[in-house]
Design goal:
The structure is a single chain. The chain has 111 residues and is mainly alpha-helical. The longest helix has 23 residues. Helix content is 66%, strand content 0%.
Length: 111
């Protein structure tokens, strides 16, 4: 599916999953997203909001490393930043609740 033809989030979601086909790529995304959530919790808990500037560094650092070194593709963040951010958290939520597999199957990522 060509990224240029994505005009709706419904069309973007399967593309996003296809761009995260390798389990190691998804795992690095989960680490990054967990770090972002952890930094937000710790920053607010300790009333140290300066920690929040690390959230994009941590989250994007793991995600972009996954794309450049594991998937060998360009992060969708570069062309669809909002949909990509939404999808990062959607994929994470589906993963931690054990509901991601049907989405991967539907997108043709796994059998």
């Amino acid at each position: 599916m060509s990224e240029q033809k994505l005009t709706s989030y419904a069309a973007f979601w399967p593309f996003y999953l296809q761009e995260h086909a390798k389990p190691v790529c998804r795992a690095l995304h989960y680490i990054g997203t967990s770090g972002v959530i952890g930094l937000a919790i710790v920053g607010f808990w300790l009333d140290n909001l300066s920690l929040l500037w690390l959230m994009p560094v941590f989250g994007y650092g793991f995600a972009w490393a996954a794309h450049f070194f594991v998937e060998n593709n360009k992060p969708a963040t570069f062309t669809h930043p909002l949909w990509s951010l939404i999808s990062d958290f959607r994929m994470y939520g589906l993963f931690i609740t054990g509901r991601l597999r049907p989405h991967l199957v539907s997108a043709g990522v796994i059998d």
